[in-house]
Structure formats: structure tokens, C-alpha cells
Amino acid sequence: QYDEVEFDISGMTCAACSNRIEKVLNKTGGVSNATVNLATENAVIEYNSNVLSEGDLIARIDNLGYGATAKE
Ligand code: 9UX
């Protein structure tokens, strides 16, 4: 089952940051689409909740050195 989550991302200072997060998430198993907007510090992630959880996504982003907080 596919779910969509929106995160507030902290710690991004240049465009390579957002591209990096996007790339890593899009390569992560269970993620069908990830878009990260540097200007709005927003990330929209579509993922399969049978494969990973919202917490797994947050941990993945955290590991890269950024902060993620769910918007809902
Ligand atoms: Mo830009 Mo982001 O030099 O971690 S890639 S600040």
C-alpha cells in the first residue's frame, strides 16, 4: 500500500543538499518517488508502507545529516 508523507527538512544550505537527499531516497527500496524542495525546505515522499515506515524515512534523512519532521 502506497502512502504519501510530507516532511519539513532542516539543515539544507545549498542545492546539492536537496539533490543528495532526493537521490538517496529515490534509491531506497520501498520509495516510489521523492521530491525535495530547497527553498521551501519541504520533502514529499511516496512510499510503500509495507516495506518501510515514516520513522525509517526520518532515520534515513537523519543519517545524511539533515533533520526531518513530519508535517501531519
Ligand atoms: Mo552544499 Mo549541503 O556545499 O550538505 S551539499 S551545503
Topology:
Elements: E1 2-10, H1 15-27, E2 31-37, E3 42-48, H2 54-63, E4 67-70
Antiparallel strand pairs: 1-3, 1-4, 2-3
Number of helices: 2
Radius of gyration: 11 Å
Number of domains: 1
Contiguous uncertain segments of 5+ residues: none
Query: How much β-strand is present in the residues?
Result: 35-45%
**What's the rounded overall pLDDT mean?**
97
CATH fold field value: Alpha-Beta Plaits
Structure in a nutshell:
The protein is of the alpha+beta class. Helices cover 32% and strands 38% of the residues. A 4-stranded antiparallel sheet has the order 2-3-1-4, covered by helices on one side.
Provide the descriptors you would attach to this structure in a database record:
72 residues; alpha+beta; Alpha-Beta Plaits; four-stranded antiparallel sheet; 2 helices; Copper-exporting P-type ATPase
Characterise the protein shown here.
With 72 residues, this protein is an alpha+beta fold. The chain has a single domain (2-70), classed as 2-Layer Sandwich (Alpha-Beta Plaits). Helix content is 32%, strand content 38%. The protein has a four-stranded antiparallel sheet with strand order 2-3-1-4, with helices on one face. A hairpin with a 4-residue loop joins β2 and β3 (42-48). It is globular and about 35 Å long. Residues 13-14, 16-17 line the site of dioxo(di-mu-sulfide)dimolybdenum (9UX).
